[in-house]
Amino acid sequence: MPADPVREFEEYRSELLARLGDGDPLDVLAHTPRGMEERLKGIDEATLSTRPGEGAWSVKEILGHLGDSEWVYGYRMRMMLSHDAPEIAGYDQDVMVAGMAHNGRPLSMLLEELRRLRGLNLDLYLRTKGLAWERYGRHSERGVESVGLSIELLAGHDLRHRDQIERTLAAVGA
Questions:
Q1: What is the homologous superfamily of the domain 9-171 according to CATH?
Q2: What is the pLDDT of residue 1?
């Protein structure tokens, strides 16, 4: 069972870093949007909007969460790169997914949002790679996290949700 990002933050962090392993986080981040597009091609919108069970997210909700994460991480990184040890607010991902109504959005829009935001954020990460990645913020739930660690966590987060999408597709018969 995957670790809860709020109640089990140390286990969650360890899980994400273990998923990444020795992989290049920028490579993982760069390939996720296209990989999702290829994987989901030809699957109908109704199937992608189907939740596999009580409290579980649909594929569209998972994709929407990845897009939401790009908004959040983009802001966090910009704060860490431009301010000294800023406070980084956590958020309840389930509340955000519920509030964003991702199932009502077309797959093409969810993929485009992820592709564009990810591209903008990757540009930032590449432009600042080096000493700037040592800059950090104070996450309200997880404590001190550097830009570099945050990028690794985001890549592990992608891998975690790629697996979740595969489990969800299997559960809804796609």
A1: dinb family like domain (1.20.120.450)
A2: 67
CA dihedral sign of residues 79, 81, 86, 88:
positive
In whole angstroms, give the CA distance from residue 111 to residue 105.
10
pLDDT digits (tens, 9 = 90+) for 31-73: 999 999 999 999 999 999 999 999 999 999 999 999 999 999 9
- Sheet with strand 136-139: strands edge to edge: 87-88, 136-139, 143-146
* Burial of 96: CB neighbours in 10 Å, binned 0-12, 13-18, 19+: middle
Domain spans, the chain? 9-171
Q: What is the mean pLDDT of residues 83-106?
A: 96
Contacts of 141 (CB under 8 A, 6+ apart): 5, 6, 9, 90
